[in-house]
Amino acid sequence: MSEEAKCLLKEYEDMLSRLKDNYKKYYHVNSVRNFIWHYDEISDLAAKRKIYDILISFFCEAKSKKVDDVYLSNDLFKNHLSVIGEYYEDNLKFVVYPKIWILTVWSLFVLLILLIVRLPNWVFLIYFTGLLIYITFLIRKIYEKRVYTFLW
């Protein structure tokens, strides 16, 4: 692990030690952890330096502000982590991790439409097969720690 990554990890652990459990989601601790975990895989030195600066800026803002609602958390995510996430998506094959409840709601919504339209059974089979493949893909990405998302 590089010195920069060790410094980021120390800042991350300091942030975690100050946060109460019910506030951790507002600081996107799992996404930040995954960014740090794969930090040394970045080969472009300019991008690596920019990501380092953004993460340090994130930690400074996390120290100076009490983020205890979704709106402040959204600002923190948009100003820091979404920028990093785009680079990680393009270059390190990260994916945005949808929350389970979002996946469930959308799946039920699509299922309801399929039932209303009264499509044949093979359409349901294709839909659920695709959903199963997508969930398997997500599980693999979660295992590889190549995911990030809002409030996670």
N-to-C span: 24 Å
Uncertain residue ranges: none
Helix content: over 70%
Structural class: mainly alpha
Could you give a short account of the major beta sheet? 2 strands, parallel
Q: Helix count, per DSSP?
A: 6
By DSSP, the count of extended strands is 2
Shape: elongated
Give the SSE string.
HHHHEHHE
The residue-averaged pLDDT reads: 82
Bin the strand percentage. under 5%
Widest β-sheet, arrangement of strands: 1-2
Global Rg? 19 Å
Number of domains: 2
Could you characterize the architecture of this molecule?
With 152 residues, this protein is an all-alpha fold. The chain has helices at residues 3-18, 29-37, 45-64, 70-92, 100-117, 121-143; strands spanning 95-96, 147-148. The protein has a two-stranded parallel sheet. It is elongated and about 60 Å long. The model has no long low-confidence stretch (mean pLDDT 82).
How would you sum up this structure in a few lines?
The protein contains six helices and two strands. It has helices at residues 3-18, 29-37, 45-64, 70-92, 100-117, 121-143, and strands at residues 95-96, 147-148.
